[in-house]
Every structure is written in C-alpha cells, then in structure tokens.
Amino acid sequence: DAKTTQPPSMDCAEGRAANLPCNHSTISGNEYVYWYRQIHSQGPQYIIHGLKNNETNEMASLIITEDRKSSTLILPHATLRDTAVYYCIVRVANAGGTSYGKLTFGQGTILTVHP
Amino acid sequence: NAGVTQTPKFRVLKTGQSMTLLCAQDMNHEYMYWYRQDPGMGLRLIHYSVGEGTTAKGEVPDGYNVSRLKKQNFLLGLESAAPSQTSVYFCASSVGHEETQYFGPGTRLLVL
To answer: Does A77 contact B at CB distance below 8 Å?
Structure first.
C-alpha cells in the first residue's frame, strides 16, 4: 500500500470548514483513498473513501486531485465533537494474501476544533 | 443494530494469567480483525478471519490465539499474559467485497 503524508496537527474554528490534506504521491491505479478518524479513547470511525472521483456523504466530502497524488477531506461545518485524529489511508481494494484486509494507520492529523 | 461490540471494556491481569476478549458484530460481515494500538505505533493487525471457522495471522500474532466458531463472534485469547501485551485492543469487521472496516469501542488491557 502507498505511503501517505499528513500534517501532524491543524486547528479549526467551530462552524467553519475543516480541510485536511493528504499526500499520496506513490498511489497506484487500483488503490483507494480512505479516511478514518479516532476520537479520544474510542475506536476508529470510517468517514469516507474514493478512487478517482470526488465523493460526498453525510459526514464529509473527499476531493481527489486529477493525478490522484493528493486528496483533501472536508468537514463542511466543524463542531467541537469533530476534534479527533484523522487518518488518511491508501490501500488496494479486495487485497489478498498476507495483506488481506489490513489497514495501515500512520500518525494522522490531530484536528482541534475551537469554540 | 449495535454494530461491533467488545467485552470487557477494561481488564487488569497479572503476568502469566490468561483471558479471552470477545468481539461480536451484528452486521453479518464475513471478515473480522483484531488490532492492538500502542502509543506512537498506530494500529497493528494481530489476527484476522475471512469467514466462520477460518483464522489467519496478521503482523503481530505472537502470544495471541483466535477463534471464529460463529460468524458473528471473533475471540482473542492470551494464554499467558505479559506486560508487553498492555495495550488497547480493537476489533473490526467488514463485508466480503468492500474493504471498509467498522471498529468496536476497544478493550483496555493492563498487564502487571
């Protein structure tokens, strides 16, 4: 799976959009971009994923550049409850063998939402 | 629909004791996983299962055993606990052909 690079920390004002960047310059054509977050003392929570096209769900939007070397997770109206560590993960869908199902979590971005 | 649940939430063991962590999911997922999370290490895969009756080793399987006797349950066993196994343990599950994993709330284990 391709390696990802994220800023270690970011701040955001409550009610504003939070834009979390991720670089994945070595991504392969069959690798998806996944975003998870982990609120303190809780299990990781799936947010969104995509391959090429931009994606949106009830939690967030995912913008993937045309060359797929980077992406941005957008939380449109951040709240205090969005304070968490956000992980960008690149992985092959339906991988088999020893990497079957493994999610590789890096250090992530600590997002702090301020009142 | 409870999703993925884990029991117990917290446990203290003495070195050499044994215990079993239980993971249950009600989403009819085929795949289940056990991870451990340590400070500065991220999540590491211990064992996983691609279906009832099957298990396989992940990145850090030593000192752990697993069983998947029922599709909805995935058990993680520590036969002889060691202080190095002090960690937070997360279980996850996923549908067969979609790799999105859904995690439980975690079990905090302290081995003295």
So the answer is: no
- pLDDT tens-digit profile of A15-71? 999 999 999 999 988 888 999 999 988 999 999 999 998 999 999 999 999 999 999
Q: Give the minimum alpha-carbon distance from B87 to chain A in angstroms, rounded to a whole number.
A: 12
Q: Are the CB atoms for A90 and A70 separated by under 8 Å? A: no
For chain B, how many residues are written? Answer: 112
Residue of B33, B102, B105 with shortest CB distance to A46: B102
CB nearest B105 (choices: A32, A42, A46): A42
How far apart are alpha carbons A77 and A79 in whole angstroms?
7
pLDDT tens series, chain B, 112 aa: 789 999 999 999 999 999 999 999 999 999 999 999 998 778 899 999 989 999 999 889 999 999 999 999 999 999 999 999 999 999 999 986 456 889 999 999 999 9
Is A34–B100 a contact, with Cβ atoms under 8 angstroms apart? yes
Give the Cα separation of B94 and A100 in Å (integer).
Answer: 12
